[in-house]
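Obj: model holo form, ligand = adenosine-5'-triphosphate.
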Amino acid sequence: MSIVLSIKNLSKSYGYVRALNYVSFDVPQGSVFGILGPNGSGKTTLLGVVMDVLRANKGNFYWFGQPGTSPELRKKIGSLLETPNFYSYLSGTDNLKITQAISGRGTKKDIDDVLKKVNLYDRRWSTFKSFSLGMKQRLAIGAALLGDPKVLVLDEPTNGLDPVGIAEIRNLIVELREKGHTIIMASHLLDEVEKVCTHAAILKTGDIISTGSVEEIMMEEDIVEIGAADFSALAEFAKRLSKTVLVDEKARTVQLVFAKGTAKLDEINRFCFDNGIVLSLLTMRKKKLEARFFELTNN
Ligand code: ATP
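Output (holo structure tokens):
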């Protein structure tokens, strides 16, 4: 698989604040690549550097194998780093005409194609103010799609949206990937990332702490989920079963983390039973990205 963006040892400081610390990773073509991290971990700074809005202190980045950026190269990359200013009394079509004229990306003829791609073609003559939040964000992604860029860079594309709006953007991202776009997005909505991203990099105070396919990031350990009628006794006893215990009060289950290939379900069952705990749930499961993220970031 070819690499769309390769980041090598990027470092960036704002005065004494180190926002990125020797960050390196590769974004494969055709992936939905999530850049994850708690607030202030450097996600926006990273996107700013690779989009040439900010200058790194050290390191390099390569789009399609070429160092830095150029006007020619920028045509292959659409970005949505800030919400664009759309005019509320103008239609979706007219707003995109203005964006197209200002940015010079694509031609007026592309506007209908973009509106179809973001599923707003039927509402193209409705005013922007009549759009739902999800539709407004889809129009913003449409603006980034002018000129049919191969890659889309999105900073927190579901920020501020309700669950319906989030689902709309999630579906759109999946559709755009199916149409051949590579999508790089910063997000802190881990559940959403888990649903749409194929790959991810996890940042913590400027350091990369894990990167690879989402499967790889989640499957670095064996996770055993257990449940019992006496949940508080189970949560207490679980500390004797594994060094890493994640207690889910809401689901009334406990997750035990073991090194890959070392969890033995029959031994866990016997040990619990011998100590007066009868398990009603005992299953090996894939770790949720969220759990992995909290563990990696000690959050
Ligand atoms: P969030 O999720 O809150 O948007 P983030 O992961 O995108 O955060 P950045 O905005 O890149 O993180 O910030 C990384 C660090 O750099 C933070 O400590 C932040 O306070 C600092 N920082 C960002 N921009 C500036 C700036 N212009 N001047 C000084 N410090 C900054």
